[in-house]
Amino acid sequence: MKKNIPTLKQIAENLELSVSTISRALNNNGSISDLTKKKVIEEAKRLNYVPNIIAKNFRDKRTKTIGVIVPNLMHSFTGTILKGILLETERIKYKTIICETNDNIEKEKELLNRMLEFGVDGILMSLSKFTTNLSPLLKVLEKKPIILFDKASDKIPCTQIVTNEVKGAFNAVEHLINIGKKRIAIIKEKQGSFNSEKRFIGYLKALDQYRYPLDETLIFDVSNTTIEEGELLGEYIVNLKEKPDAIFCITDSLAIGIIKTLNKYNIVIPIEIAVVGFSNSDSSRVIKPNLTTIKQSGYKIGKLAVKQLIEEMRSEKDFFSSKSIEVNTKLIVRESTFVL
Amino acid sequence: MKKNIPTLKQIAENLELSVSTISRALNNNGSISDLTKKKVIEEAKRLNYVPNIIAKNFRDKRTKTIGVIVPNLMHSFTGTILKGILLETERIKYKTIICETNDNIEKEKELLNRMLEFGVDGILMSLSKFTTNLSPLLKVLEKKPIILFDKASDKIPCTQIVTNEVKGAFNAVEHLINIGKKRIAIIKEKQGSFNSEKRFIGYLKALDQYRYPLDETLIFDVSNTTIEEGELLGEYIVNLKEKPDAIFCITDSLAIGIIKTLNKYNIVIPIEIAVVGFSNSDSSRVIKPNLTTIKQSGYKIGKLAVKQLIEEMRSEKDFFSSKSIEVNTKLIVRESTFVL
DNA sequence: AAAAGCTAGGCAAACGTTTGCCTAGCTTTT
DNA sequence: AAAAGCTAGGCAAACGTTTGCCTAGCTTTT
User: B63-163+298-327: which CATH topology?
Assistant: First the structure.
């Protein structure tokens, strides 16, 4: 379908004025008489004129677009962050291009370059599970600002907006200590991701601070933080002679899997074994007993990430930075640890 | 930070060739000798040249961008559709701008116009709950193609890609009939949304086909399809003298709420009351008993929507259409209806 | 009344790319 | 040997917008 899309030129011709006058009238800059302004605005409306954003971008040498790269859009915490990002970018009239890596490192690298080609002004990014090769990131960082959020890395010299993982995990374990638990286990990732490692540190810190001895047999590793892996590991745990009396799972999914198995073997939660998760997912209120968990403010992280990015885009400095903003968490106590 | 971003002109000067030759060499069109091509490519690599996508867009008068408008990014079915959309757009090297309306009609209207300003080539859209004023949509449709998905409307003259809601609901109810249930209730939305209405039709159709009498007292309305509303309505239902022996809920959330309340009153599912949901959400496998539900292929819908949009963008015709593509569902039988 | 200042709007260039048309100087055909 | 064809690359325009600089023709100041 061929459309005759109205341009400034068209309006100018209809009104027998110059293109620059039209531009100035519509953008309200330069000295244009009120009468002319009025006529221009009317004619623009009559023609259904919409400024050609592509031309404007071209002239301004920027797209007012930011790129967002996440491993998995459907991960519930990521979803909350995206909501924060969208709300904030929309407020400042920026566009947001979202991509998924599915934790595929090759794809991550490709998307990073694709973002440059797409002409984004900056990038918000949550790293794939095991991003090891940092050079693609560093290369992009020479041209455009990048802010890492949630799944970050201490090794990349750019601003990071993350949950205070250590403190969150600390609070979770402290809570288990407070309700009188003695043998507190942790389930973490085998190949420590950023989040897993930090949460593990929080676990260790809490034990240390409360003079709990570190018991290696209470540290469990899984390769995937899914419900199924939780269930499977649960089978192993219920068969131990010396069971833990509390389990801190680094994700809600793992915790749900564990609870499912404990339920199956009629182990009473939280009396026999208490369970804590991390994330406050939707399902944490569906599982029976309801799951005690750590609530992270994804919304806040998203919003901060955008603000920070805009700031760096406007700055005249280069984009290397070691700034790290940590957002606090909140312990949500539910049935899985609630004892009178 | 001021950057000296390399352009075709720069390469041309360094190599003492014309800009057009550089363009042709890099894009491999026009007749350029292999030697020249090689030199150009080398120099481009040396300068770290990235084509200026903004200029390219400007010249081509298109952005290779599609806009996606959804009510809520975090709704799990929407998430699956978005994944389908992202995978497909990425494959064809298109960008995707995603926005959320939060079921706010004003915002929906604004975003629609924002999309035009953003210069998208086409729009994929899932309607807000109660979009009544169709004129903003029609206005956009005069300029750019729109494809509606999931939350569609029979009243809008554009292509729609939706779940076969009627058939899905029909299968759900048919399944309840097959397991011997006699008093089959439905929980739907008070102010019928597109999906709610269609699912209700499926319910009616199944009753009709199996000669079940229509019992108005078995039709329940809620104003929100949340877990909480399900729980609340559950309280009402368990107190009825004449209870249903099966409940078809038009969403998984409602079904989960119902199950929670039934569990609370120790009503045995599915013997006393069977429950079916719609969507196959994550939580449907977390609730105990696991929920029987209707699986929709969001991935397929997303992919189809993109394909259809691209087709319409390329077409020379106008963008009005009454095409409707329905994607089939699958009944997933779990504990909440499973009887031997 | 001459000079200075102001108001309203025009001219033209620039952003980086692609492409239709052109042509010099070969090579091949008759 | 003249004509035709081909190869490799150049010229210049175009996309729509914004903006620095300019100026005609007023009005105000001295």
Answer: Rossmann fold (3.40.50)
